[in-house]
Amino acid sequence: DLHLSLRRQRQMCIRDRHAVFALGEIGTLKAQDAILSCVSDPDIHVIISAVEALGLTAPTIRATKALIECLRHPESEIRFDAALSLLRFAANPNCVLKSKMTSALAASLRDSNRYVCAYAAEALERLATKEALEALLPFLTNARWCAHTDNTRPF
Question: Strand (E) positions, 6-71?
């Protein structure tokens, strides 16, 4: 029966995305490897959970590269979670690939999703390198309150 098949498939998707997030809460490198394999899952919700879960793990080179790549994803919620996870990495004293993060986050300051911009700005502030702050300053100078908010789009 097609209805039963679709229901099972939906239940598996829900279970998978919760399992992926739980791996992030576990936070070990082995858990991170499993999460990284989910970043290319065919289900968008599993990808979103994986990208968010990566931010709960240690900032490794592989995880940082995966999150940087996710900043270019066509789905804005994935970019949003990638920027948030990179912000968490930037706040970690063991942060890696700061220069690559800075370039990617600087580009994200022009994202169409204002929350991506905000997390990218905060991540650059947390990185606090000369390069990161130089990328952040023009964004802050040009932003009156929010670059995406005006009379036609108040929220």
Answer: none
In this structure, what DSSP letter does residue 37 have?
A: H
Rounded Cα distance, 63 and 31, in Å: 11
Whose CA is closest to 107, among 143, 83, 74, 81? Answer: 83
Do 127 and 108 meet the contact criterion of CB atoms below 8 Å apart? Answer: no
Tokens standing for residue 149? 């908010």
User: What gap in Å lies between CA 109 and CA 148, rounded to an integer?
Assistant: 11
Whole-prediction pTM value?
0.85
CA terminus-to-terminus distance, the chain: 44
Q: Report pLDDT digits (tens) over 38-61.
A: 999 999 999 999 999 999 999 999
Tally of CA atoms within 13 A in the half-sphere of 72 that contains its CB: 8
